[in-house]
Every structure is written in structure tokens, then in C-alpha cells.
């Protein structure tokens, strides 16, 4: 069996290992759970190239369609993970919910020829790949827009941060860019822009090693570090608010006390000069 085919299996294993590792560090945190789902999505989609090339006939096609379910749900889960890392407000997450709605719609058609018509062989190799249906183009547009939003959010997060947090977010952007590059590299074969065997699964293996290095070296996705950074910002905001409150409250208290004494003086017939 060719190495191209096995690369999909290697990508699945690598993504599953790193996803389970991050999840095991703190299973109760939403960030860790979302990262596990994202890793399963990447691995589940990539292993489709393995199954479609080792299984014959209709079974290979149905397995390929099944694996696309992971790809369909990948964009909103990925964006939800990025929003959680960056601690976005709830009203900023509306695009995630729109993404879930589109993923639900596409899932209805994933096992039909409207999504994948069949399997074809690349001209310059023996590699089998998807023959897209009409809804596949909608999936491509959906994937592209969501990935652009993820890059935008990631870049904005870098600009908002500083110090070690900024370094971690730069490494996250690098890993994100590799994962997104792998997706578009595969699409270039599906749409017959490139005709050689896909390299997306190789890129995804590199992505997992980059992510693993950043996790070990810079404590990327360390939930305690992420929460500590945001706790520090909240603490500084609280101190500033307390300081402003103190400076405003003192004059207000003096005015209130003077007003009270003026009322007492007027009720007893005294003069304001006595206050």
C-alpha cells in the first residue's frame, strides 16, 4: 500500500493522541473538550482518504461520505474553540451558531450524490478522491469563510495580548494556518486544480507535531495559564474601578453631609454660616 494512503491513517492517530492528551489535562474545562472534538474532527476527516483507497466499490464511497461528516462539523467547532481561548463575549459567538445551523443542513445531504457524486482517480496517480456534487461547493464556500474568520479572530487575539500569552497565540496561529492549508490543499485536488496525489495528510501530521511542541515548550492550551491571564486582566479592571469609586465617593459624601447639615440648620432657624 502506498505511503500517500497511509498518511491519512497517521494523521488520524496523531490528531487523536494530541486531542486526548489535552482533554486529559482538565476534562471539566470547555476549552479542553472543544479541542478534543476539533482533533477528532480533523482526524476523522483525514482518515477518509485511507478508507476510500483500501475499500472497493460502494463501501469505500459510503465510508468517504461518512468521514465528511467530521469535515462538515469541523468549522463551527474550530471557531467555538478559538472563541473560548480568546474569551469572546456571548454576543460575539453568533457566527458559531450560524455555523452549527449550516453544518446541520449539509449533514442531511452528505450521504447523497448531491454532496459527493462518486469517486474518481487522479490523472497523475492511482489515488482515489471525491467527485463533488452541487452541495459540495456550498461546503467549500462555508469552510473557506469560517477559516478566514478563524484566522481573523486569531490575529486579533495576538494584537490584544502581550508577553507569554502573545507568544502562545502566535504558535496557535501557526498551527491553525497549517491545518487550514491542509484543507485547501485537498480541495485543490477535488476541484482538479492540481492532479498529483494530495499532501494534506502530511501537512496535518506536521501540524500535530508543531502543536505538540508548542504545548510542551510554551504551555499552549494550558487552561491554568489561559485562565490566569484573564484573571489578571479582571483583577486590574477591578482595582481601577475601585480607585475611581473611591475618588468619586469622597466628594459625594462631603456634599451629602453638607446638604444634611443645611437642612437641619434651616429647620431649627439657624444660619448657613454656622455649618
TrEMBL record:
Residues spanning the membrane: 6-23, 35-54, 66-82, 94-114, 134-151, 171-193, 199-215
UniProt keyword list: Membrane, Transmembrane, Transmembrane helix
InterPro entries, per the entry: HisKA_7TM
Species this chain originates from: Candidatus Abzuiibacterium crystallinum
Top-level taxon of origin: Bacteria
Domain Histidine kinase N-terminal 7TM region as annotated: residue spans: 9-223
Protein name: Histidine kinase N-terminal 7TM region domain-containing protein
Gene3D superfamilies for the chain: 1.10.287.130
